[in-house]
Write a structure and sequence with these properties.
about 150 residues, alpha+beta, 5-stranded antiparallel sheet, 3 helices, 5 strands, about 35% helix
Length: about 150
Amino acid sequence: MANVEMIRAFVARVLEDGGLVEGRAEPDSDGDFQIRQGSSLYWVSPGQAGDESGLVQVFGIVLEDVPLSRKLLIAVNEINRDYLWVRCFWHERRLTLARDLAADSLTAEALIGACAQIGHIADEQDDKFKALIGAGRTAFEDEPDDADSVEV
């Protein structure tokens, strides 16, 4: 049986030391750590796999409110084909990316790499999926380049 609290403490330390969170890493009510990258939101979830081994899942919602379509499934298959160790899937009108890591052999570098990979892919692909299927919404809408400018 995995010691989930020990895994959670390790994850918190890596997120803090790796600069993925500002200040102290605090889990949400589910025990997951929430991280924003661009217009995407992803979570680092310490836990236990079905065989009771330790597991850390890094997952992000690419788009919400996405209808299932042939175009969507083709694009999902392309993600699954093109990115190593990442799975993309549609479930309950959500397009999700995930990467599972075995906790017993997890290093700080591997966790930081998985976070960078999921965050980058989710942020890079969300607008492409929206344009392709003409639907869905991101966790955060991208701000225009001139968001800090002031009209005089």
